[in-house]
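Researcher: I'm preparing a figure for a lab meeting and need a structural model of a single chain. I don't have an experimental structure, so a prediction will have to do for now. The sequence is pasted below. Please return the structure as tokens so I can convert it later.
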Amino acid sequence: DLRRRTGPHVADITYVRMANGSFGCTAFADGVYARRIVGWACAMTMNTQELPLQALGQAISWAASRGGADGLIRHGDHGTQCTGTVYATGVMEYGVLPSTGTVGDSCDNAMAESADGAYRTELVWRRRPFADLKDLELATFRWVSWWNSKRLHQSLGYRTPEAVETEYHQHQAAQAAPL
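Model: Understood. Here is the structure written out token by token.
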């Protein structure tokens, strides 16, 4: 079913050290079914609710290109960027069902936190601080592409998100084929 392969999505924001000593931020929206990063955005400030909305917008476009976003659920923590009026209004305008976990439960958004941790470990901490927003965006774009198409995920039986999705579509096509 469509909801199984496009949603729910989990979302979170993480800090990134910049070369000038400041912090940039990256927001992710991850599809739960195949652990694919379906939306992301970078900014030089966390004092905006636009950052998670940009990532959500990409996630909505991704789901729409695969049959629709009806019934899509967006789950996140209780951070102000994801619970404020601007963001909540944007979520409703997209027709997405908002979901938040319990306050203070670090396990409640564990899948999003796990992707954030991998991003920090596999990209952010392994290279010099990012020179500027363009540098951060380009590196993040490359990492997300790698994450979705090349990185093997233990939770997916050491397959990539793309491989899991391809197998799903092949299975659906085989079931739909006339006998």
